[in-house]
Structure formats: C-alpha cells, structure tokens
Write a structure and sequence with these properties.
Layout lengths: L5 H7 L8 H4 L20 E2 L2 E3 L4 E2 L4 E7 L2 E6 L1 H21 L2 H9 L4 H4 L25 H6 L8 H6 L1 H11 L9 H17 L26 E2 L2 E2 H7 L2 H14 L4 H8 L6 H12 L8 H8 L4 H21 L2 E7 L2 E6 L4 E5 L3 E2 L3 H17 L5 E5 L2 E2 L1 H9 L2 E4 L5
Parallel strand pairs: 10-12, 11-13, 12-14
Antiparallel strand pairs: 1-2, 2-4, 3-4, 4-5, 6-7, 8-9, 9-10
Helix pairs in contact: 1-15, 3-9, 8-9, 8-10, 11-12, 11-13, 12-14, 13-15, 14-15
Length: about 400
C-alpha cells in the first residue's frame, strides 16, 4: 500500500506497529481520487508537463504523477506538487532562454560556441544527475563556512572559485526556484546556463533573461513570511553560499537550545536543501515566546525522504503563520511524532500540509496515537487539527469523537 510512503511514513515511524483494538472496530473508507483539473492551485497542463488524472490519495496526501519530457515525476502532497510544477515552468522558460537568438549572439560575442550551451537537456534522465559535495563556498571570506560544513553543502568548490555558483544562485532566484534543487533536469539547466554566464562574462540580468516574459511569471518557491538573520529567504538564496546558510542555521539552532549533536545531524540531512533548512529554521525561530522549540527539530531530523523533509519545512511555516495570527501558544510538544503547539488554554494545536484527510485504517491508527499521547500529557484534553486541504465527513466525525476539531483550508 502506498500509504506508508512519503509524509505518512514520517508519521508512522514513531510508533504503532499494530492497530489498536478501538481502531480495528471502526468503519473505514477508501481514500478518494480527484480530478486534476479541479484541484485548486494546480495547473494540470504546462509547456513541458501534464498532471495525470485522476490524482490518487492515501488518507492524508494527494499523490501526483506528472508526465514530462524528462521522465515521470512523482509528488506527494499539494505543496510538493506546487514546488515541482513551479520548477517545470521555470525549466521551460530557461530552455527558451538557452535557445534564443539573443543568448546565442551573447555567447558568440563572448567567444563561446552556442551549440555547446543551448538545446534541450533530455539526455540526462531523472535520477542520474548528482550534485557535487563540498563545504568550501569560495575563497577567503567563505572558506571558514565551507570547512565547518564539509560534506553537507551542494556548492561546487571549483564552480565557486570561477563564479558559477554565484551566477547560479542569482539565476535561480530570478526564476523563483531553489538554487540547490533536487530536480535533476532543472539542476542541469541551471548548471549549463550559469557556467555559460560565468565563462562568457554574461550578466544574469542580461542575456539570461532575454526572452520576453521569461522571468517574473513563475510562482516562487522561495517565498515565505519568515526571515533568517533579518534577511528574506529569497535574498538569502541569492546572496549567500550553501555553506554560509548552514552556518546561519547552526547559529539559530544553537540559540534555540538545540543540542550540538542534533544540530549536526539535522544539518547533515541531505533530504533538505540549504534553502529548505533555512526556511524551516527561520519559521521556528520566529516563534520567539514559544518554549521547547528544539522539540520540533527532533521530528525534523527524522525525515528520511525528500517528501518528508518538504512536509516538515511546510509544517514549520504553517505553525509560524498560526503563531503570528494568535500568539497564544506556550510550548511545542510532539504527539506520536508530529509537532503540536500547546495553547495557553491547554488545547493542542497542529497545522499540517495535509490535503486529503480520509478515515482509512492507517490514518485512524495515527490519530488514535495522537490522542493517546495527548491524554497521557493532559487528561481529558482537546485539540485542533488544522489542515491545508479538506477532510471527509467520516474523518471529521471520527476525529470529533476523539476530541479533535478539524479546521480545513488553512493557509500559511
């Protein structure tokens, strides 16, 4: 069953090998499927992709299959699907840039062969392109950060020295994508164009956005209301090397009381990009009056897949948004492995990027575990499950019997 994959696997990793008797006696439902064209915020067809329909779900998340010229792309949950579709839209625009006459002339003027630096990159199938591992961001002022983060960054040491990494960061930020993307076709295209820019002395703001409308029409993956070191995540992505970003993360984690061992374990988790890590750390750091913030990172460090890590990043951002709205939370706890905020009135509140909550055996077992953990902490307590999507009537009914109020369509 696909249910044990992705974000749900993160939730099931903290307990419960067998289903409790109370769950076994319940009525369950099959997780629904959805018409891709009717899912809010999802553009089903783009220049280089088609979202297959119907879209399955697993009791918590919608499971997307996206057809592309580079192979089939899977995305677990709406948030990850939005990220991938934004990356595909950016990739389509970057390919137009690489094939444009303006860019070709710029390469010729720079003494480079346009054939080498243009064309669609279909020869590198998804999953075969791997980033280089080096902690050295660049010479002099960045070398200290690089040594501190050896083996944890995705910057290329040689690329940093000749300017490729700086150009790549600027190019990625211009198109609203993570410069350390784990999507191989986009990674390869950013590498191709940033190398051409660095070697040919081309300005990213010039020839590399020469196609009319090429930049500024992709919904950014870098946008968040939270700041790290008083800097927006987009500016951080544009101006700082991966090594420098990790150093900022380390500093903030230490200030929040996260142990050195957990900090290094978290920073070494390659399922997060440096930008994901910064967005997550910034979100939790901004909850200044909440105690026990280090608890969140215990759960975050356990993310053993890319989809799990992105789930944790989004949950951090959602929790921070809830904190900004109400500010009446005292501390963070984990129930069954999922972080919850504890309000001053004793309610347990979580906000999670769950887009299709249905009452399957597995989701029922998970919420039973949340409920048991909640009752062990505070007898006769209640709580709220705030989700970004919708819950089925049966799921809402069953959660109400467990003392949970479901709030749908939560935004962060």
């Amino acid at each position: 069953m696909v249910f044990a994959q992705g974000p749900l696997r993160l939730l099931t990793a903290f307990g419960m090998v067998v289903l409790p008797v109370a769950v076994m006696a319940q009525t369950f439902e099959a997780p629904p499927s959805f018409n891709a064209a009717q899912i809010k915020g999802i553009d089903r067809v783009g220049d280089n992709y088609t979202v297959r329909s119907p879209v399955r779900s697993d009791g918590l998340m919608r499971l997307y299959d996206i057809e592309t010229p580079y192979g089939e792309v899977a995305a677990q949950g709406d948030a990850m699907a939005h990220m991938r579709l934004n990356e595909l839209k950016a990739l389509a625009l970057l390919e137009k840039v690489a094939g444009s006459e303006t860019f070709a002339k710029s390469l010729v003027n720079a003494g480079l062969n346009p054939i080498k630096y243009t064309g669609r990159l279909i020869t590198n199938p998804i999953g075969t392109i791997k980033g280089t591992l080096s902690g050295i961001g660049s010479m002099f002022d960045r070398i200290g950060s690089g040594l501190n983060n050896a083996g944890k960054t995705q910057d290329s040491a040689i690329g940093s020295l000749i300017g490729v990494t700086s150009e790549r960061r600027t190019l990625a930020a211009t198109y609203g994508v993570d410069p350390y993307t784990d999507f191989p076709p986009l990674d390869a295209k950013l590498k191709q164009l940033s190398e051409a820019a660095a070697l040919g002395g081309l300005a990213v703001t010039g020839a590399l956005i020469a196609v009319p409308g090429a930049a500024g029409i992709v919904a950014t993956n870098l946008s968040t209301a939270n700041k790290l070191n008083n800097m927006s995540i987009e500016d951080l992505a544009r101006q700082y090397s991966a090594a420098q970003i990790l150093d900022l993360n380390r500093k903030k984690l230490t200030e929040m009381g996260v142990s050195a061992e957990l900090t290094e374990s978290l920073l070494a988790n390659r399922n997060y990009t440096p930008i994901d890590m910064a967005a997550m750390v910034a979100a939790i750091d901004n909850m200044k009056t909440v105690r026990g913030r280090a608890v969140f990172f215990d759960a975050a460090a356990a993310a053993d897949e890319r989809s799990n890590a992105y789930f944790m990043r989004r949950q951090a951002e959602l929790l921070a948004a809830e904190y900004r709205r109400h500010g009446n939370f005292e501390h963070i706890v984990t129930l069954g492995g999922l972080p919850f905020l504890v309000a001053k009135d004793g309610r347990f509140v979580t906000v999670a990027p769950i887009d299709a909550l249905s009452w399957t055996q597995q989701s029922a077992a998970r919420f039973e575990a949340f409920t048991k953990a909640r009752s062990q902490l505070v007898a006769k307590s209640t709580g709220e499950i705030r989700i970004t999507g919708q819950a089925t009537p049966l799921a809402r009914k069953q959660l109400k019997t467990l003392g949970w109020t479901v709030v749908e369509n939560q935004r962060g």
